[in-house]
Amino acid sequence: xxxxxxxxxxxxxxxxxxxxxxxxxxxxxxxxxxxxxxxxxxxxxxxxxxxxxxxxxxxxxxxxxxxxxxxxxxxxxxxxxxxxxxxxxxxxxxxxxxxxxxxxxxxxxxxxxxxxxxxxxxxxxxxxxxxxxxxxxxxxxxxxxxxxxxxxxxxxxxxxxxxxxxxxxxxxxxxxxxxxxxxxxxxxxxxxxxxxxxxxxxxxxxxxxxxxxxxxxxxxxxxxxxxxxxxxxxxxxxxxxxxxxxxxxxxxxxxxxxxxxxxxxxxxxxxxxxxxxxxxxxxxxxxxxxxxxxxxxxxxxxxxxxxxxxxxxxxxxxxxxxxxxxxxxxxxxxxxxxxxxxxxxxxxxxxxxxxxxxxxxxxxxxxxxxxxxxxxxxxxxxxxxxxxxxxxxxxxxxxxxxxxxxxxxxxxxxxxxxxxxxxxxxxxxxxxxxxxxxxxxxxxxxxxxxxxxxxxxxxxxxxxxxxxxxxxxxxxxxxxxxxxxxxxxxxxxxxxxxxxxxxxxxxxxxxxxxxxxxxxxxxxxxxxxxxxxxxxxxxxxxxxxxxxxxxxxxxxxxxxxxxxxxxxxxxxxxxxxxxxxxxxxxxxxxxxxxxxxxxxxxxxxxxxxxxxx
Length: 613
Ligand code: F6R
Description:
The chain has 19 helices and 26 strands. By secondary structure, the chain is an alpha/beta fold. The protein has three domains: 3-252, Aminohydrolase, N-terminal nucleophile (Ntn) domain (Glutamine Phosphoribosylpyrophosphate, subunit 1, domain 1), CATH 3.60.20.10; 264-443, Glucose-6-phosphate isomerase like protein, domain 1 (Rossmann fold, 3-Layer(aba) Sandwich); 450-595, Glucose-6-phosphate isomerase like protein, domain 1 (Rossmann fold, 3-Layer(aba) Sandwich), CATH 3.40.50.10490. α9 runs parallel beside α13 (407-427), α9 packs antiparallel against α17 and α17 runs parallel beside α19 (577-595).
């Protein structure tokens, strides 16, 4: 969370830093700030509470044309969103400016040292003390990079940090400590850029290198050097990154979320590129394991957070059904602290759109220590998750800008389907006729997802009727259960409506007490082996005067006259139902949020990449 940007070169840095912040705003948007500095203009600092536009308004017409600068867009951890708590933070003499992403765990102790000497801190952040520590070392005559290494040794936690010294115009130093918060460095012509992720650099360069945990960078317009924590020089490889810049624009859509929902037919089309029906085979790029290693697996553990965990729950069904390997799903944050029993025959599959979610990275480290084979499903080239796992299956959806995940969930579910089919074939547990049937069925999914998008006017109409309710229940069984969780999550995050997702079988064990005419229920009821049970659940809700919005299979008549709203979904193979069924969940949440005037792409309190615990 939080986005950081730096530029040093020959062009005015202000507009470049602000544009970079615009591209990182999805990482946090409760305040923003910028520091510009060079020989001619000294150190200029501006900060503003609220979204980046407030900062832009504040600095309009006053930005000096300095050729170096750093910037920050914040997601508050320590101290409320305010001008004082916005970054950059300075030391008392105004010599050092820092921007930071992550958490300094021992900042109280570090601050105490200065407070004892009568120092005054202007913010409540854990960051400000870093500027004090750096300035203290610079006053002792240390070089800026050495000072940064020293500070990183003192400040415990996992974070990324950029720092500048007004007395060394044009020089930016960067640190990456632990697994939270990436830093990517872009190499341009007579200029260098730094950012939390690739998206901010792409308009300027595709030649990039990533800072690894424990690495430090010394960046000038005409020079670039890397060292480790002991100050030893490191040689880094520079890669040319492909990235679709056009995809990062909203185009004809009112919001990124809507655009990304509408991109899903292409997303699934792309994720199917390894599927061929004759002979039935799925080739998964990025799966690094030999057939012998796959046959030796005894268990699969899938980890992720939020929407990615919901995709993992669908993946568990696929792994068990097609590969017949015992599979379990864990929330990464629980997994990492539970002391999970793991061994070298446990395949760990992590799902992370960003590849930077701190809990998922920590879970992956836990698996690495246990010697587990690991594959990650990720959308961000070069992200930390891709460097921990043995292999990466890329989602390749193009950038997902809306904070609420949509297309990356669809891609993850389909890639898990492909992985399960591949594992099943190699292990001989998947009947070739079932493999062929699943592959053929999967090839129809792009059209079915496209047909699901055509339900949008109907969902907008339902949204209009239900947007004033304050509580919702989502129920599903089997493959519908992760969808119930996802539907509730989407609604909560974009519309701020309280929504609960439950396995429908659980309803009578508590949630039923909530049901009355003020709490509508979304029932996910495809015609599968548990359809009759879902039907009973719908009856039970109606008997308690609850309204029901039912999502059913194409041609289903059994809920007519029973549910208040019936939405027929396009026909699709039951195993692939989640790929189609998730689309109306997304559209319903989107349209309810729009009806309520919510900030759909940047919901309050959230950030796209969660790099703090
Ligand atoms: C919900 C959402 C989050 C993310 C979660 C994991 O719409 O976007 O729940 O799914 O923060 O993020 P990644 O996939 O980047 O690890």
